[in-house]
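Quiz preparation item.
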């Protein structure tokens, strides 16, 4: 019954990480998965949902395009791969969405965009116009120029910032784990899935730790918990689920008991600037 409220949410931000878009064996983009994601998002939009997708994967596509065996550690090389991969990734998204009669648009953001009020307002206005036009915005960090963000940033936080900026009602994070556990399930077989979080507190960050089971992603569980803190204090709901099968998005919006549901706890005088 708790999740019945999710059926009513119309403006939804969906974040998918690199680990959910790539083949585990090679780190290359899984184009079958990409096609499935686009099909589900197009169908949700046909239901009347407003969809914003925060998508990782640019560096992975760039590495794949250049046939590099491993992701480099040097910042300029990572940025170059992002420049190559972002264009290729958007081309794939545009082609796939067009097959379902949908139009998508690329929006690249940096923390600098969020911090400066003028640029933040401009970005917000752009999002609102795109949604009014029936377009699906596809968001990523502008890795090519954002030196600090590419090294320390992650799309978990970005998705929460976008949610607050555009007045979205629900954040869905597709991860490589079934939800939020009492401990890291990859190292602790006794870790238990927490299905419902009334309010995020310090204990949740201790349980989450700063870990990620993926070699291609940047956001560990603490990044997801912090994104949930931002989203729920803004006044939105968040659900963390496994992105192994993107059809799970139907279960979330239908209010089914999947993953971990973080209840909205709207904070008075919420200011996005405090979290940047």
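Solution:
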């Amino acid at each position: 019954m708790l999740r019945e409220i999710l059926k009513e949410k119309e403006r939804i931000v969906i974040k998918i990480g690199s680990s959910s878009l790539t083949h585990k064996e090679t780190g290359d983009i899984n184009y079958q998965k990409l096609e499935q994601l686009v099909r589900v998002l197009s169908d949700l939009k046909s239901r009347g949902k407003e969809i914003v997708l925060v998508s990782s994967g640019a560096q992975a596509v760039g590495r794949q395009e250049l046939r590099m065996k491993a992701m480099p550690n040097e910042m300029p090389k990572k940025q170059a791969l992002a420049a190559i991969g972002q264009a290729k990734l958007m081309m794939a998204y545009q082609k796939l969405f067009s097959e379902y009669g949908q139009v998508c648009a690329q929006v690249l953001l940096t923390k600098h965009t969020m911090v400066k009020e003028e640029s933040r307002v401009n970005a917000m206005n752009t999002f609102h116009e795109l949604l009014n036009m029936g377009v699906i915005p596809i968001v990523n960090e502008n890795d090519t120029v954002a030196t600090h963000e590419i090294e320390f940033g992650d799309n978990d936080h970005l998705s929460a910032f976008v949610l607050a900026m555009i007045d979205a009602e629900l954040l869905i994070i597709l991860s490589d784990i079934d939800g939020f556990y009492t401990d890291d399930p990859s190292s602790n077989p006794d870790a238990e899935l927490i299905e419902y979080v009334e309010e995020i507190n310090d204990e949740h960050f201790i349980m989450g730790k700063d870990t990620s089971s993926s070699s291609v992603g940047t956001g560990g569980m603490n990044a997801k918990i912090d994104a949930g803190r931002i989203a729920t204090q803004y006044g939105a709901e968040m659900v963390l689920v496994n992105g192994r099968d993107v059809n799970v998005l139907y279960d979330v919006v239908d209010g089914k008991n999947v993953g971990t549901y973080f209840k909205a706890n709207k904070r008075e005088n919420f200011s996005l600037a405090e979290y940047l």
